[in-house]
Design goal:
With 136 residues, the protein is an alpha+beta fold. The protein has 3 helices and 8 strands. It has helices at 14-25, 66-76, 90-93, and strands at 4-10, 31-35, 49-53, 57-61, 82-85, 109-113, 116-120, 124-130. It is globular and about 55 Å long. The relative contact order is 0.28.
């Protein structure tokens, strides 16, 4: 199993660093930016913003066995997962159906393991990377 390695760097301007993170992420076709906007709902939260960029592995599933496959994917890959669940996945849980036209064409379930993870707090930027070029 490939390990994620973290390095920390002090920051001097929180707002500027957050903007730089977002601008840097534009180079990736897959990324997820989570920001709690200084809302203190986790008293022990160690970060203010989280950016997951690139992917080492992806899971894309239609309605059917999506939840089962996601659970298996999670167990096989003990790392951070980011993604989305569509409304139509309700059909796996309940005997329901939808006949709405899908104009967006997103997969019903999509999750990825990021290659790079940035965790920003008021004082530091923590960067976690999976190096796929290292043998091991």
């Amino acid at each position: 199993m490939v390990e994620r390695k973290f390095t920390s760097y002090p920051i001097h301007n929180f707002t500027e660093t957050k903007i730089q993170m977002l601008n840097w992420a534009k180079q990736f076709s897959i990324f997820c930016f989570l920001d709690n906007h200084k809302y203190n709902f986790f008293s022990s939260s160690s970060f203010e913003c989280l950016l997951a960029a690139g992917s080492t592995k992806k899971l894309e599933m239609p309605v059917g066995k999506a939840f089962y496959t996601l659970q298996k994917f999670k167990q096989e890959n003990n790392d951070w997962l980011f993604g989305h669940l569509s409304y139509d996945l309700k059909n796996e849980i309940e005997n329901l159906s939808s006949a709405n036209i899908d104009k967006v064409k997103f997969p019903d379930l999509f999750f990825f393991i990021p290659r790079i993870l940035l965790m920003l707090s008021d004082e530091e930027l923590k960067i976690g990377v999976i190096d796929l070029d290292v043998d091991g």
